[in-house]
Backbone:
C-alpha cells in the first residue's frame, strides 16, 4: 500500500511569507503528526490530529498551525516565516487500532527561508 | 544532512561485525519505544518497536533490548552491511497518553567496508 505522501518536497520562501505543507497518511490511518527537524534541535513534535481535531500540540509559536480534513489528509501552515523556520518538516501517520502500531513517516518537505 | 549541527554520537563498525546503539530515555511513563533509521535526504524509517511489557524483541538482523529500571534502550544490528550506514534514533511514547513521540538526538553509524 502507499506510504505517507508529503508535498511539496522542496520549498524556498522569503522571510515574512507564509507556507502551507500537505500530508496524505497511509490509507486507513486517522492520526497524523507533524515534526520539525533541524540540525540544532533535532526532531521536535509540532502537533497531532485525529478525526479532524488537534489532540496534542508541541511548544511552537502560534505561527505554526495545522488542520485535518475528513479524508485524514492534513496540512500545516507557517505564517510570517523567519529564517529559523528553515527545516525538514516531517509528517507521520499511525493507526492505534492496529497491532502494528508504529508511526510511519513521509520523506518530508525541505523548507528554506531566505 | 539534517543532523550535521547536532553533536551526534558516532559509531564506526567494520562490515560484517555486529553493532550496538544505545539510548537513554527520560520519561518513566513511556511505555512504547521505536527505533528509526534515517538516511540522508529521507524521512525516518521504522526499524523495530517494543512495548514496556517486554525486555527484548527480535527482527531481521536487529534486536531491541529494553531496561526499564535504568531507562535504557539498545539496538543491536547483526552482520552489518554498508546499507546500514545512517543516523539511528530512538523514540518514546506513552501509549495511552498523547500521540507525541519524543526523539533522542541520534547516533550516526558508519559501516567501514
Residues:
Amino acid at each position: 500500500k502507499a506510504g505517507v505522501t508529503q508535498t511539496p518536497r522542496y520549498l524556498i520562501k522569503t522571510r515574512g511569507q507564509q507556507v502551507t505543507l500537505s500530508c496524505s497518511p497511509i490509507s486507513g490511518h486517522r492520526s497524523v503528526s507533524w515534526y520539525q527537524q533541524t540540525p540544532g534541535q533535532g526532531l521536535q513534535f509540532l502537533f497531532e490530529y485525529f478525526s479532524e481535531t488537534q489532540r496534542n500540540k508541541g511548544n511552537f509559536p502560534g505561527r505554526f498551525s495545522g488542520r485535518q480534513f475528513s479524508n485524514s489528509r492534513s496540512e500545516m501552515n507557517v505564517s510570517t516565516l523567519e529564517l529559523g523556520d528553515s527545516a525538514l518538516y516531517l509528517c507521520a501517520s499511525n493507526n492505534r487500532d492496529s497491532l502494528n502500531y508504529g508511526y510511519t513517516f513521509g520523506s518530508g518537505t525541505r523548507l528554506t527561508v531566505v | 544532512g539534517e543532523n550535521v549541527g547536532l553533536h551526534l554520537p558516532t559509531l564506526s563498525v567494520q562490515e560484517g561485525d555486529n553493532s550496538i546503539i544505545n539510548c537513554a530515555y527520560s520519561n518513566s511513563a513511556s511505555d512504547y519505544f521505536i527505533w528509526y533509521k534515517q538516511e540522508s535526504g529521507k524521512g525516518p524509517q521504522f526499524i523495530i518497536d517494543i512495548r514496556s511489557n517486554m525486555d527484548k524483541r527480535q527482527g531481521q538482523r536487529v534486536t531491541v533490548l529494553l531496561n526499564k529500571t535504568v531507562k535504557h534502550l539498545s539496538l543491536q544490528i547483526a552482520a552489518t552491511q554498508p546499507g546500514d550506514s545512517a543516523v539511528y534514533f530512538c523514540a518514546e511514547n506513552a501509549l495511552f497518553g498523547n500521540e507525541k513521540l519524543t526523539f533522542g538526538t541520534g547516533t550516526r553509524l558508519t559501516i567501514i567496508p
